[in-house]
Amino acid sequence: MLTHILRLLLIFAIAFAINLPPAFMPATWMLLAFARIKFGLPIVPLVIGGVFFSGLGRILLAKGSTFVHRRLRKPDEELEEVKQYLEERRNYVGLASFLYCLLPLPSNNLFIAAGIVEVSMLRVMIGFWLGRSIADFVYVWTTDQVFQNLGSVFERFYSDWLAIVINLVSLGAAAALLLVPWPRWLFRRMVRRKKPEPERR
């Protein structure tokens, strides 16, 4: 029992660590699948704890993107309008996060964008934890991949060219989010309130 608890804590710590970088880390479910296959850890606490701690890592990634963005770019009027737009629709932020996290896609861009826009992280995290708990449970339960050791988790990831391409695209998108004034291009028509028309005399 004690051995299982210690192994769970170790896996949770690794899940936290691999979700700090913005790219080029294996998916959390691969780590959890390794732990379940190698150590026979119970799947429910394994997935719930793994997703929870991976989310904590993503929170720090979001905070890091906020820190970097504030130092690379001056205050942006359009970005403030994006914040206001999302705040007015804050009930949809969690739902959008939940639906995105059901997909087999990296969540790094989601948190980098959330950090840049500085939306309510609570809603983002609730959506992330619910969505990833469901998705990762399915992946861990149904996977037919066999990981002999922790190194094989990383080896399997780095030998998957599609995963590397997705991460390269993801990293490029993250750089664009930090460096390019995307709110001005993407949200101008959607966010900016229409100016009142001058009264006719």
What are the main properties of this structure?
201 residues, mainly alpha, 11 helices, 0% strand, globular
Rg, nearest Å: 20 Å
Strand tally: 0
Distance between the amino and carboxyl termini: 82 Å
| Total domain units | 1
Structure description:
With about 200 residues, the protein is mainly alpha-helical. It has one domain (about 1-145, about 160-190). The protein contains 11 helices and no strands. Helix 1 (about 1-20) runs antiparallel to helix 2 and helix 2 runs antiparallel to helix 3. The longest helix is centred in the first third of the chain and has 30 residues, at about 45-70. It is globular. The relative contact order is 0.16.
Topology:
Layout: H1 2-18, H2 28-39, H3 43-72, H4 77-88, H5 90-101, H6 108-117, H7 121-142, H8 150-158, H9 161-179, H10 182-186, H11 188-191
